[in-house]
Amino acid sequence: MIATLTPALDLARFIRAGDRVVCGQGCAEPLALTAGLAALDLPIELFIGPLFSDSFAEPGRLRFASYGAMGKASRLARRGRLEVLPLHYGALGPAFANGDLRADVVLIQLAPGPQGHAAALANDHVLAAARKARCVIAEVNRRAPWCRGAELDPAIRLDAVVETDRDLVALEPAAIGEAERAIARHVAGLVPDRATLQVGIGAIPDAALSELAGHRDLGVHSGMIGDRVAALVGSGTVTNAHKSVDPGLTVSNTAFGSGTLCRFIDNNPAVRLMPASHTHSPAILAAQDRMIAINAAIEVDLTGQVNAELADGAPVGGVGGLADFTRGARAAKGGRAIVALRSTDRSGTVSRIVPRVAAVTLARSDADTIVTEHGVARLVGLGLAERARALIAIAAPQHREALERSLGGAA
Description:
Blueprint (H helix, E strand, L loop, with lengths): L2 E3 L14 E4 L7 H9 L5 E4 L14 E4 L6 H6 L3 E3 L7 H7 L6 E7 L6 E2 L5 H6 L4 E7 L18 E5 L13 H11 L7 E4 L3 H8 L8 E2 L3 E2 L1 H9 L14 E3 L1 E2 L3 H7 L5 E3 L2 H4 L2 H5 L4 E6 L2 E3 L4 E2 L2 E2 L2 E2 L6 H10 L4 E5 L12 E2 L14 E4 L2 E4 L5 H10 L3 H9 L6
Helix pairs in contact: 5-6
């Protein structure tokens, strides 16, 4: 029998000391449940994804694990409270399914609907974890959008449910500065009409989407969509009419945005939230003609290796889907994999084109096209010396001489 919980949420009935609790990520965080969890005085490990709320500003005895340190999870990492597991995003679901990752309790946000419950704003590893967990607790939020493709599998047993009517976690579009706009103009010039887009999270991918308003008949097949994808659909720039796979549909694994995005997604027959086995599959991506992957990074070295995990020695990102999207886009007919980043940190004193990266998220053998505000470096087919020259040419001018001097140890 499913227990119906009150807002008081006596989660201690279900959660034990030492449990690993897997929680809905990003805008799919079930806020009533995480508030109840934060109030428990138990030593628990919470497996999270991107964190956009302040639910764990005072983490108490909670410990955290994740596949990255995105959003406010980076604060937990800096405090030594977050362990980052170096896993590809597409590997998370299988890892929970086969027991490589343990899930004792799952906290999930659902949307009610005439067709039954659907996972709200994410069709992700949390559902895989729910199939194996000892206990699954759902927050059914009347304001959550009903997401096609994410209908709740009847095989997932709900042990307890709390019904709420509250605002969801919101992620507003990122602020865009002049450097991001300059990068975005270069990226937009690499995107042909009728391309299918995958975009990452952050100011640079958001800026790139803003610069695509003049393009025609674009499609979307992504791990994440936000408000700016909804805007491009609304303006007619994204039609999905020429996709080789899933024509007519905007496809994503998660949705991170504001109420605007929720209204766009809610029971929309032209939107599907699909599992990572579909959205992150290199084979499916390779079958998508003109597949263009647009992702951000922290730094790129002179051989083309990409770091999307560490900044100044601290975790701020993760492995994510970068390798999957890069390999899939590169294999697609007319495809391209773009990694875009500022040439320096915001002070201008630290170059993000470096002799050696702090972590190798993407190998140099996978690197395709690197973009900064100073230009574009296409690395495919270039030897190490040529790559170094191409990357120095798009580095910040004040750092090029030092990079030239480092070449003796860069190749």
